[in-house]
Amino acid sequence: MSSAAKRTASDAGLDAPGPAQRETSSPSDPRPAPAAPKISKARACAECKRHKIKCEIQPGETSCRKCIRSGIKCVANDFSQRFVDDDLAWKSQASATIQQLQAAVSQLLRHNGLPDLASFALPDGTNGPSPVVSHSRSSQDDGRGRNSGPSSSNGGHLMARESSQDPNVDEDPELVSAPMRSLYEVTKLRNLRSGPVEKPKTTLLEEDFISRGYISLQEAEELFAYFSRTMNQLLWGGISVPHPDLTTVRRKSTLLTAAVLTVAALHIPNRTDTLNICYNEFVRLVSSTALTRSHTIDDIRAFCVGAFWLSDLSWKLSGQAVRIATEMGLHQSFQRLTRGHAEEHERAQLWYMLYVCDHHFSIAYGRPPVMHEDTAIKNYETYLQLPQTAPGDIRLMAQVALFVILTEAYRTFGSDAERALTEEDFGQLRVYNVAVDQWRLLWQPRSPDSPYVRTYPSKGVVLHYHFAKFQLNSLALRGLSPTNPPIFSMERKECANTAIAAAMNCLEMVLEEPDVRDAIVGVPIFTHTMVTFSAVFLLKVAVNWHSAYLNIDGRQVRRTVGKVIELLNCVSAGERHLTRHIARGLSKMLERFNIWEGLYAKSNGPATDISTPGAAADGGAPVHSHDAERIARELEAGGNRRSVPGGVNAMAQGLPPPDLIYNMVGTYGFGLDEQLMDPSMSGFEYMF
After folding, report:
1. Please, where are the H alpha helices in 545-670?
2. pLDDT of residue 599
3. Chain-centre distance for alpha carbon 421
4. pLDDT surpassing 50 at residue 603
5. Buried b vs exposed e over 284-301: b needs ≥16 C-beta within 10 Å?
6. What's the rounded Cα separation, in Å, for the pair 536 and 579?
7. In DSSP terms, which residues pair with 76 in a beta bridge?
8. Cα–Cα dist 18/115, whole Å
9. Helix axis angle, 425-443 to 490-512, nearest 10°
10. Could you give the CA distance from residue 54 to residue 72 in angstroms, rounded to a whole number?
11. Cα–chain center distance at 76
12. What's the pLDDT band for 57 if we cut at 50, 70, 90?
């Protein structure tokens, strides 16, 4: 094409020649071709493209001159134009389909008496997924970034590659990162990524079990209000669930909603049906999220709430919460917080809460803790210096400081029930005793009173002080056999007597301190465990290590344990609350203890004939002849009778009833098992 023709085409607003047109230029022309102007690409129909001629369209026409003269349809040859046309056709069809689905959903909502479709808001910050993205999303994604299962297109193979690299990988300035992250950089396998890959589901009020009618909104509001003013305040002044109302919790996490309502229903009398509904929903949600990675910090709070108050789930939930928290990076929140990132405060606080939760149940079950003393745990005083610190943080850090001491003792002495402490061990045990004494002196004055639970924060410090002293010093009796008692050194006897005094102080404080007594129902199950263990320990020591060895009064033990049983029977709680089971279990053990004590007194008194009815001293349960004979028969039938003349004399010489002493206390981890409280607890999880 000549220069004049090019200028004419340019002045007429026609596009620059395309590749086909440039092919018609003379290859022998030595002049370089002028640079093409930056205008839109030429439109050439298929007919003009085939003849390699210019496709000219007059203003107002839809076909070019060549096609008009030939009387044929002018079809564009531009592939991009075809894509545009196809896209318009697809969108038109998709729009019609969406309108049809909206009409069907609206009819279903009206039929079920639910709100209009317009009231269902889209997730915050989004206008819905684009049709192309929705169309191309595989069955592994449920539309909210959550995996719903393996895609059928890949045969269920889970080692799928990412479509693009995580942008954070290239932005990471660190040369040395986690090994799994390097493996991901090479393979791009999405299930190797160290960071969360799924966006948590935005929970709408219309989707949870309250909106589905499982329980009424009014009852749910009552349960949440009860939890907020009782259990939530007992656990560090409300920082475990900081949300002000039920609506906020429901918008944050359905899992947390189910946990809170389950715990509240467990504590309120005559709410068994509601408890069943909430418990089943909570377990269902926990199970459904076990293998997903779409969690929020409120989901972690839900795991903690369940662990603190649901005894049959506590161990599993505490461990799961720690793993989810580390996957979300909460173990690094304290470092970010100290560098000035104030938004990390809530996450760092939750990391401390997890530490206490983990150690509550590692101690209770006699198992090693999952969390260790990292930078955040070691520097809890730095956390308390931050401006966001609240009274609840002080109470939380007091627990952290105590469990740091107890964990160090665990590592020193272990949990081998057959390993008795040597005389050299008592020097280190004294160090831990001093540390616990200093802990009380430091934290009791720092724990302010609460308008909800009055003096419980400072009195709770004292209660946990007695727990710790009892727990540490009970090791003096570990691995010792009452049938072949060793010679007690002064240090061993001193520690054993300290444990006895601390266990008695635990029970007496629960009985005599009004604010502690009023809180005994709502406290986490760790406190219930320690109270139970104190009572069981005293009963066992009174049977196995009577006053000939240690300073323990069986009559005082019987009176104190009896009062504890009366208190637990009188508290206002649900029928399946842990205190009910503890009361039943302790009652059975106390009954056996009374029979044993009566027989022991008779066998050492002027009259040793057990056929004569008698009564236990000091107002205890009476010992009848048929009870004594029954105990003697059980001893013989159980194979526990020893080679000592006379069945009753064998009991008098230290042989206890078989179901009273099933394990001698002495392990550092004393074991929160079903037998500790009530044999019926073994099926607790099946009661719902």
Report:
1. 554-570, 578-603, 625-637, 647-652
2. 65
3. 36
4. yes
5. ebbeebeeebbbbbbbbb
6. 15
7. 45
8. 58
9. 30
10. 16
11. 62
12. confident
What is d(CA 254, CA 265) in angstroms, rounded to the nearest whole number?
A: 16
Band (pLDDT 50/70/90 cuts) for residue 601 is low
Each residue of 148-199: pLDDT tens digit?
333 333 444 444 444 444 444 444 445 555 565 666 566 656 555 544 444 5
List Cβ neighbours of 525 (8 Å cut-off, separation of 6 or more): 308, 309, 310, 311, 314, 364, 578, 672
Q: Which two tokens stand for residue 286?
A: 């926990």
Joined together, the tokens standing for residue 404 give: 């740091």
Helix residue spans in 137-253 (DSSP H): 167-171, 179-187, 217-229, 231-234, 246-252
Distances (CA, A) of 359 to 300, 317, 356, 368, 436: 16, 13, 5, 9, 16
- One-letter amino acid identity for 558? R
Q: What is the mean pLDDT of the chain?
A: 75
Which is nearest to 681 in space by CA: 588, 580, 590, 589? 580
Cα gap 330→295, rounded to integer Å: 12
Residue 106 tokens read as 């609206």
| The pLDDT of residue 61 | 82
Containing 614, the helix (H) or strand (E) segment is: strand 614-615
Distance of CA 289 to the CA centre of its chain: 11
| Long-range own/partner contacts, residues 597-603 (CB < 8 A, 24 or more apart) | 597/542, 597/554, 597/558, 598/622, 598/623, 598/628, 599/623, 599/628, 599/631, 599/648, 599/651, 599/652, 600/651, 600/652, 602/648, 603/648, 603/649, 603/651, 603/652
Tokens at residue 374, please?
């990292």
Stated length of the chain: 688
First to last CA, the chain: 88
Say whether pTM exceeds 0.90.
no
Find the Cα–Cα–Cα–Cα dihedral 215, 216, 219, 224, rounded to 10°.
70
User: Which residue, chain included where needed, has tokens 């020591």?
Assistant: 541
* DSSP β-bridge partners for residue 416: none
- The amino acid at residue 610 is I
Give the number of other CB atoms < 10 A from CB of residue 348.
Answer: 23
pLDDT band at residue 256 under the 50/70/90 scheme: very high
Q: Which of 247, 208, 255, 204 is nearest to 228 (CA)?
A: 247
3-state secondary structure of 470: helix
Q: Is the pLDDT of residue 531 over 80?
A: yes
410: nearest Cα among 662, 673, 670, 675: 670
